[in-house]
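Task 17 of the worksheet. Students: predict the tertiary structure of the chain below and write it out as structure tokens. Keep your answer in the requested format; marks are given for formatting as well as content.
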Amino acid sequence: MIKKTLLLASTLLAFSVVFFACKKNGGETTNLSVHLTDAPYDASEVNVEILEVNVKFTDDSSGWLTVPTVAGIYNLLELQNGIDTLLAVGPVPRGLLKEVRFVLGTNNSIVINNTIYPLTIPSGGSSGLKIKVNKNLAASVDSILIDFDAALSIIKESNGSYSLKPVLKLK
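Model answer:
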């Protein structure tokens, strides 16, 4: 936890410098915070490795910008009942935010009855998990809250393995 806090503090400091440099050069930016929360699910842990948070302001397939991310393995079940965590924060252009994408790693798992099962994610590692946002970022500071709904996302396969077909909702 201390490591994540120190990483977040240093990231905030570095991107404050970038933010003020952009502002000095006349660029209109918003300091965007991306938070994550979850709905309840009947397991001990649902762990998802988030490597990067990207945002997109255009309709084409290019134009993804990386928001400075606190990469790590997040237990979604610790993010319930009004609790969320800050995943990423940094300057982005003002305007209509079209999409957010989470780039996932391979360290994803679920713990049920003290047994750890790997969670396979069909396309999470290659293309990331995307959510349509369509929110106008006009203020100097803005944030979004994304609910990663574990209850709707976990699929128990017929062979006893588990897969993650993420259901993301904008709160």
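Marker's comment: The CA atoms of residues 59 and 98 lie 7 Å apart. Confidence is low (pLDDT under 50) at residues 1-25.
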